[in-house]
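Single Protein Entry

Contents — chain, fold
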Amino acid sequence: MKRRLGFSTRAVHGEPEAHPDWAPVVAPLYQSVTFTNPIGSTQEVIYTRYGNNPNHVAIAKRLALLEGGEAALFVGSGMGAVALAHLAVLRPGDHLLSSEWVYGGVQRLFAQEFGRFGIDVSFVNPLEQRTWKRGLKKTTRAIFVETPTNPLLRVIDLEPVASLCKTEGLALLVDSTFATPLNLRPVEHGADVVIHSATKFLNGHDDVLAGAVVGSESVIEEIRKLLHVWGQALDPMAAWLIDRGMKTLAVRVAKQNQTALALAEWCAQQPQFGGVHHPGLPSHPDHDVAKRILNGFGGLVAVELRGGARAAERFLRALTIPIHAPSLGGVETLVSEPRLTSHAMLTPEARARAGIPDGFLRFSIGLEDADDLIADFAQALAQL
């Protein structure tokens, strides 16, 4: 029986192959739209818009291997991945049941755009199992879940939802961007399709925009057909950079897991924070679920500053290491305010009801030393 390679080895090599003499150690960049086509051949044309440029193929094979799926496909953005994955499994007249705890852009896609394609979408609280069954319709064809969620970092137990999907013959699609394949592999918990904003941890350097979908060969082929006509192809240079980023995925995420937990534990002791959100804290409402299904608690920490938006602005101005910018998963620590980014469309009252009061800050922890981040937080709090 062939020995299964460890996660880091697969992240670096995929399935190791023999290298001929003088072969480049780093795969070359195929910055070409088109490739010489054999005369009379009926094989698939290699064309970068089709997502089958050699740089595309290399990272797709590796991601499928890391997630435990049959196949994968990279596209031009995380939102593109969400859109194409759903359009591959839904048809006009179908109903999609979604968790209500989803990224704001996805919520807008579902609520405002899918109706134009004749797809009905409704939202439920993902923690209450009875709401999933109650939300089903005769036309329901799929369920969508994001875990851990943005920005409260709630951890959804996928197995009860997957069990319902299996019983009812539904597809389960999971956005696992925050978890990464190191911390959670949704396929192992019953998911049919896994979605990533590859902009985040998979690339890990804040310099690429991309999305990815993992699933069965048949689903990925459906998405590829959509890619041909919707034109969301990934640039070869972006694919080459993701190839580089994925090689360090395991060590980056392991370090981010460790640093984020240390920072969260420190923040939980500071009276200036009215709340600290991180699945690794015993105070987190999903701590027990996170311990059971996650291999690591993730690289994000959210805090609520007493004093609201005014205190948050003073705190942010005093910080010297974190960079005030949206996005996450890179080597630099970033901080964003959901009231101005992902949840800007909501009123302050609606945000507060959702557990995101003014003064709420989401930190994506980078590769800096934990002691330096803690010291920076301490000096910034001292100036409030």
User: Anything to note?
Assistant: The longest strand covers residues 140-146. The longest helix spans residues 249-267. The chain has a mean pLDDT of 95.
